[in-house]
Amino acid sequence: MEETEEEKKDEADYKRLHSFPLIRHSDMPEEMRIETMELCVTACEKFATNNESAAKMIKETMDKKFGSSWHVVIGEGFGFEITHEVKNLLYMFFGGSLAVCVWKCS
């Protein structure tokens, strides 16, 4: 069964709509937040089928750039309660339903 032009257009619109990151909560300074958000998008796109590798890439990069003790959770359908350092938390969605939480706790 071949896709019609209408279905292809709808799929392209859906992908475009859900490919932008949506920040749910962050207390990071502006520059750090933007850098972290871009890193998360890059990692999630690079490892689209492997959340563990994406989380590892984000954690290692954050540890090098902003000091150690960063934690990363990536996935769909999870809850969490964390303790974190002030001005070191980012909680965002990417690709529609993929949640990314990045925080520092020493």
Report on the architecture of this protein.
With 106 residues, the protein is α+β, with helices and mostly antiparallel strands. The protein contains 3 helices and 4 strands; from the N terminus they run αβααβββ. It has helices at residues 5-17, 30-46, 51-66, and strands spanning 22-26, 70-75, 89-94, 98-104. The chain has a 4-stranded antiparallel beta sheet with strand order 1-3-4-2, with helices on one face. α2 (30-46) runs antiparallel to α3. The chain is elongated and about 55 Å long. The termini are far apart. The model has no long low-confidence stretch (mean pLDDT 89).
Question: What would the keywords be for this entry?
Answer:
cilium, cytoskeleton, alpha+beta, 23% strand, microtubule, Protein Inhibitor Of Neuronal Nitric Oxide Synthase, Dynein light chain, 4-stranded antiparallel β-sheet, elongated, cell projection
Briefly characterize the structure.
InterPro entries: DLC_sf (IPR037177), Dynein_light_chain_typ-1/2 (IPR001372). It contains three helices and four strands. It has 106 residues and is an alpha+beta fold.
The main sheet comes to:
4 strands, antiparallel
Q: Count of DSSP E strands?
A: 4
Shape: elongated
Return the CATH architecture.
2-Layer Sandwich
CATH C-level name: Alpha Beta
What structural class do helix, strand and pairing data support? Answer: alpha+beta
Low-confidence stretches: none
Average pLDDT taken over every residue: 89
Oligomer: single chain
Share in β-strands: 15-25%
CATH topology: Protein Inhibitor Of Neuronal Nitric Oxide Synthase
Number of helices: 3
Distance between the termini: 55 Å
Taken in chain order, the helices and strands follow as HEHHEEE
Strand order of the largest sheet: 1-3-4-2
Computed over alpha carbons, the radius of gyration is: 16 Å
How much helix, percentage-wise, in residues?
40-55%
Domains, number: 1
Name the CATH homologous superfamily.
Answer: Protein Inhibitor Of Neuronal Nitric Oxide Synthase
